[in-house]
């Protein structure tokens, strides 16, 4: 068992928030949008979404960093806290690969995310270039997930831990069947180590999604992709949760690029088409 520093009084989200988010995931068919700042979080909440997550890529880009942990733990936790403060719905935090290699590093990050108000976390098995191989070994990632669960237990909170498997996202040189088998083995091992859900970004085939959802010992989370028509395609084959990921933030970047190009020509057609009124924006944050 991982040894942690003595934990004093820590302010975290109410138990009702943890339980509500847990129930949303268990009941399934959860479309989870990913926010990158307080404004995007408030807009998603105002649209009626019962819960939100953060996007590490969206947050990094908005602050002038590339993705993959370049922003650093403290900066990311500060952004997560700002998003949590901006809404009343439960928020799950994208903590990337935990901002460190060891189980202790993961535990520190999980504690920080919970202190920021998060009721769930995503933890990746992607080494982001810090390992001799692309992914953490199954054994190492299981130890890191166990440390996350131990920290949540120490804080007396049912944190929803979403274990991300990057065998589809990365080109590992595997055959399609070997990639599926690797993902399944990792997913079930991660669930046994303390994760609540398995997240497989990059998986795009409904048939493979059906096989994986039926073979995992827990719920499956997939990510919205340009070639997939909508969440129902995933829900119909047994996927429990679909995350928007960095997609909305990247779409905003595409819109800003269009406005930038138009402004060079002296027009603002896109800006007018997508206008969000000043009064609307003020009202959005009135209660804050």
Automatic annotation (TrEMBL):
<dbReference type="Pfam" id="PF13714">
    <property type="entry name" value="PEP_mutase"/>
</dbReference>
<dbReference type="InterPro" id="IPR040442">
    <property type="entry name" value="Pyrv_kinase-like_dom_sf"/>
</dbReference>
<dbReference type="InterPro" id="IPR015813">
    <property type="entry name" value="Pyrv/PenolPyrv_kinase-like_dom"/>
</dbReference>
<dbReference type="GO" id="GO:0003824">
    <property type="term" value="F:catalytic activity"/>
</dbReference>
<dbReference type="InterPro" id="IPR039556">
    <property type="entry name" value="ICL/PEPM"/>
</dbReference>
<protein>
    <recommendedName>
        <fullName>2-methylisocitrate lyase</fullName>
    </recommendedName>
</protein>
């Amino acid at each position: 068992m991982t040894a942690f520093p003595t934990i004093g009084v820590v302010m975290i989200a109410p138990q009702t928030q943890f339980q509500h988010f847990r129930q949303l995931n268990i009941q399934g068919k959860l479309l989870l949008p990913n926010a990158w700042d307080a404004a995007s979080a408030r807009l998603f909440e105002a649209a009626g979404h019962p819960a939100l997550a953060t996007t590490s890529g969206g947050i990094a880009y908005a602050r002038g960093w590339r993705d993959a942990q370049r922003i650093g733990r403290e900066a990311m936790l500060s952004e997560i806290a700002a998003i949590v403060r901006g809404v009343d719905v439960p928020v799950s935090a994208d903590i990337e690969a935990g901002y460190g290699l060891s189980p202790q590093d993961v535990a520190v990050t999980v504690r920080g995310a919970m202190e920021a108000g998060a009721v769930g976390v995503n933890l990746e098995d992607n080494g982001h270039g810090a390992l001799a191989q692309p992914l953490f070994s199954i054994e190492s990632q299981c130890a890191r997930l166990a440390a996350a669960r131990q920290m949540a237990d120490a804080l007396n909170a049912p944190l929803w831990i979403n274990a991300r498997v990057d065998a589809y996202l990365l080109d590992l040189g595997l055959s399609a069947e070997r990639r599926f088998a690797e993902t399944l083995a990792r997913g079930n091992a991660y669930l046994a180590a303390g994760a609540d859900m398995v997240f497989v970004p990059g998986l795009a085939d409904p048939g493979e999604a059906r096989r994986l959802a039926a073979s995992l010992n827990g719920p499956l989370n997939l990510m919205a992709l340009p070639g997939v028509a909508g969440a129902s395609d995933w829900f119909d084959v047994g996927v429990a949760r679909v995350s928007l990921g960095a997609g909305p933030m990247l779409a905003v970047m595409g819109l800003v690029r269009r406005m930038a190009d138009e402004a060079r020509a002296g027009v603002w057609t896109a800006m007018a088409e997508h206008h969000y009124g000043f009064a609307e924006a003020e009202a959005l944050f009135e209660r804050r």
